Amino acid sequence: MNQAKLKKIVFRCLHYLLMGTISVMMLLPFSWMIATSMRKASDSFTLPPAIFPTIWNGENYRRVFENLKICKYMANSLIVGCLMMGMDFTIACPNGYRPSADVLFFAREYGDHFKLTTAPDEAARGADVLFTDVWTSMGMERETERRRRDFNGFCLDAARMALAKPDCIVQHPLPAHRGEEITPDVFETHADEIFDEAENRLHVEKAVLGILLAGK
After folding, report:
1. 3-class SS at 154?
2. Maximum CA pair distance of the chain?
3. Taking the CA atoms of the chain, what radius of gyration do you get in angstroms?
4. Residues 199 and 160 sit within 8 Å (Cβ to Cβ)
5. Global pTM value
6. Is residue 189 within 8 Å of residue 173, measured between CB atoms?
7. Nearest-angstrom CA–CA distance, 133 and 147
8. What is the pLDDT of residues 101-121, one digit of tens each?
């Protein structure tokens, strides 16, 4: 076998090896996503976090389609994340839109650092950060009118901002429905903070992906 042909074979093997490695790395996030979707809710709060479920089951899929309200996911994540970071957290929502029972059970361990109320003014009073979200998530448009009635009085406006601290930050996961959950003037005043949040999510997702791919 001449040297040129040998180099060609080696190059081709390295090429296939590289493509195979890239393919495996691309499949890892999807494998992790499927594995975590099969976890019990209690596995989400273990320290250190459990990479694979202790018991594999498809109960979460049934609950998504039968019980859970999709729009509560953001609130659930904020409650867990903020409390674990040592923050005080108050959430205001109408009756019937409470966070998930698993999250409320988790928050109960933090005592006075967590508060659930139906009065948005109470939640805004003295706040360092005010977070709002759309009343109707994508895919739930048929509930729009009912949700507008249920969330009437929960708009983040100038009067409610006045109850918070003077340097209060406003956050919104976007896209926003101006005039519903937030007034145009409040949105424009805090647009820099809101769009920074949207950009920061990209960096957090990249960091999580990097940790997963590194196997840490």
Report:
1. coil
2. 83
3. 23
4. no
5. 0.62
6. no
7. 13
8. 889 999 999 999 999 999 999
